[in-house]
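Quick entry, no commentary yet.
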Amino acid sequence: MGLLYLARHAQASFLQQNYDKLSPLGEAQARLLGEYWAQRKIVFDRVCVGPRERQKDTVNLVRNAYRRASRVFPDPLVLAEFDEYQGEEVLKRGLPQLLETNQAVRDLHAAFQSSTTDAELRTNFQRLYEAIVSDWVRDALHLPGVETWQQFSARVNSGLAKFLSGSARGERVAIFTSGGPIAIGMQRALHLTAEDTLQMTWMSRNASWSEFFYSGGERFTLSSFNCHAHIEDPAMLTYR
């Protein structure tokens, strides 16, 4: 039986021109994660990472922390299957449709536009984003050319099968990815509905990890979810 760590990337640059870039806080979160694991001698046999810069920068900062502690950390394999779902495209292309047909979305959009503080901006954006993505997951929002939720789920599960199928008995492995693929791991372990799985995507903290026991294609069992013991300062705990 093997042990899989699914780690979420550290905080990215929310509402900035280039979201796919770690914020200064995100860089600190990733360093703390690497230091925490290295101090506890958590050794990985293999490591994988998604294709996004925020995912790769997170694993690189963790690897650097291991090297400073004179610990071994494998070179990560990059797999496109662990990319996040196309949330920016869903928002960009779905919002105009819903503004024409959905009063609740119009109200959420108005609240977002009238936000006057950073806290209001983040809260109102998240409410708007969740409403739009929920319609997309339920297949109530059709966006030709954009990967569907079903296609996204199949992609991540394909990546899990690809990465885990060659594992030796007793291996400890890690995948650095995003909230969506971690939620698919939860769905796989707990047999969640699509709607329940979506709710899990909002729960993963930046630079947190979840642990799963696995054995070939027979077993995939949740051990722990959303661990963030490496972050002691509550001000450093973020979802975005």
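second:
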Amino acid sequence: MADPTPSHVRSIEDLYGPAGRLEAVLNTGRDDAPFTALVCHPHPPSGGTMHNKVVYNAMKVFSSLGLPVLRFNFRGTGTSEGVYDDGHGEQNDVRAALEWLEMNFRKPILFAGFSFGANVGLRACCGDIRVKGLIGLGLPVRAEGRDYTYGFLPRCVEPKLFLIGDHDPFAPREAIEQVLLKSPPPSKLVWIEGADHFFQGIPASPAPKLDATKQAMQQWLVQTYSL
């Protein structure tokens, strides 16, 4: 996926949430890009940051289509101010990022989140009229003693894509399919064959599966939004 225009990365110094300044970077896009994008990272206490490999590759897909892409560290992560709030305050961090994109670009927004970032981001973005598409990567149901619920999904009426490794221990197939029964159309679930939670390979198929994940994400974006 070759970038149609050069993308530059710049630090964002004026993104503030309720807990204080949030460390953030923007990958620039085309001036005439029809959307901007926001990507959220996995569980902070488990080492998740905006530089996570899955988050970075999701950004690359948006960037390859010429869209400006914002990534940020949740409160208490990296140099972001505040402390981890078990997914509650982090929803307000997402809302602050949406507000920043709205103020700076005045364009509709596409969202993608990985794992914890998918759950928290979907919670914040569902029902927000500025958000025109939602992508959940590695959508977790239960991870290391933490339960993730999705009772909010019925209000997610915009197009949705869910990309999950078929060997993801945090997203058993039966549980995920039950969860996504609540997701109104248009909604698409893609199982990435031979992939674990981080879209790496499994012993029977050890090659990383991030390329397959990126291809599925790009294909959906192009088909859904004519990008």
